[in-house]
């Protein structure tokens, strides 16, 4: 039997957080409900951040309340601090994610904190989550390049990934936030990370700004990464990362993986249906 590679669907969160048009909750719910039929095990659907910082995610609790939860699917939410954690718990997210950066410039721009301050905010979240067996995922942004600080040292990525993993994150998602990574810089970064975190606990989160995300996925597959984040229709970007284009498109990653002989467990017809919905939601 062929080996399994999982795609963690990001469309409803990383995909839509950057859209200019205010997307009604009903449209987001329809997208998630479609994605729920596609065979994903994890879908990021919400973000409990300040609505002043990211207005597009303001209806996150309503999205979680409105979706038809499919069996075997975990619906995830971002939580930058305890206020976000309380919001996610109130809305019954199945798992949460904290998000740090490997570069100080992006950390400050995105969450108004130094890396150290952000980790101090995450400690009580991880403590509270541990008490109720709530899975917590950890993101590290700017793993090869930062829009403010330039290239990121692989050792810095390894250090932040290690901190989040040691604090109890079950998986660390490594973000090429602005899509400047190359197979070479991704491989060098992964070589440093794997000294500290097992590759079975690593995910690749690659934006496709320069059209290199699939090559970067190939480089990561060769290093043993078996989980990739992607967004249907190639939606997305981060409002605090200038120039960051969409996430790599789920349908492109799924087709690529299947061509390489991996199993994704996805129903491609449903993925294409969701991709069309996502593209129709997009502001050009
Ligand atoms: P701050 O202004 O320093 O926070 O922002 P504060 O604690 O001083 O609070 C300011 C106001 O925000 C207060 O309201 C708080 O109540 C409110 P006011 O009294 O002014 O009316 N507030 C909140 N409201 C709702 N939910 C909350 C919350 N926390 C405070 N959780 C903060 C700090 C972290 C809140 C802010 O910077 C923020 O929300 N940043 C989020 C930015 C963001 O969401 N970026 C995109 C996601 S990360 C990403 O896309 C990268 C990723 O995909 C990986 C990759 O690609 O690399 C994950
Ligand atoms: Mg992202």
Protein described:
There is one protein chain. This protein has 284 residues and is α/β, with parallel strands linked by helices. The chain has a single domain (6-281), classed as Aldolase class I (TIM Barrel), CATH 3.20.20.70. It has 11 helices and 10 strands. The protein has helices spanning 11-15, 25-36, 60-66, 82-90, 104-111, 115-131, 154-167, 183-193, 213-222, 250-259, 268-281, and strands at 6-9, 42-47, 74-78, 95-101, 136-141, 145-146, 150-151, 171-176, 202-206, 227-230. Helix 2 (25-36) crosses helix 3 (60-66) and helix 6 packs parallel to helix 7 (154-167). The relative contact order is 0.17. The mean pLDDT is 96. The protein binds 3-hydroxy-3-methylglutaryl-coenzyme A (HMG) and magnesium ion. 3-hydroxy-3-methylglutaryl-coenzyme A binds next to helix 4, helix 5 and strand 5.
């Amino acid at each position: 039997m062929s080996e399994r590679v999982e795609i963690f669907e990001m469309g409803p969160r990383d995909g839509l957080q950057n859209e200019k048009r205010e997307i009604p909750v009903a449209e987001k719910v329809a997208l998630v409900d479609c994605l729920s039929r596609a065979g994903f095990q994890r879908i990021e659907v919400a973000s409990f951040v300040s609505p002043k910082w990211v207005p597009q995610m303001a209806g996150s609790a309503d999205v979680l309340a409105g979706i038809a939860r499919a069996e075997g699917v975990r619906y995830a939410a971002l939580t930058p601090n305890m206020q976000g954690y309380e919001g996610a718990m109130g809305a019954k997210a199945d798992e949460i994610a904290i998000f740090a950066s490997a570069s100080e410039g992006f950390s400050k721009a995105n969450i108004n904190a130094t890396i150290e301050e952000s980790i101090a905010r995450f400690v009580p979240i991880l403590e509270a989550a541990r008490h109720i067996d709530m899975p917590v995922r950890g993101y590290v942004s700017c793993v090869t390049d930062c829009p403010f600080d330039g290239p990121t040292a692989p050792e810095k990525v390894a250090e932040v990934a290690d901190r989040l993993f040691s604090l109890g994150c079950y998986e660390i998602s490594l973000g090429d936030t602005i899509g400047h990574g190359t197979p070479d810089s991704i491989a060098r970064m992964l070589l440093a990370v794997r000294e500290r975190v097992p590759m079975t606990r690593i995910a690749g989160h690659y934006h496709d700004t320069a059209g290199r995300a699939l090559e970067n996925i190939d480089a990561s597959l060769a290093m043993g990464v078996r989980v990739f984040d992607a967004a249907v229709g190639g939606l997305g970007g981060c409002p605090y990362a200038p120039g960051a284009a969409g996430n790599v498109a789920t349908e492109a990653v799924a087709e690529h993986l299947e061509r390489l002989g991996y199993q994704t467990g996805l129903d491609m017809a449903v993925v294409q249906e969701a991709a069309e919905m996502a593209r129709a939601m997009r502001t050009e």
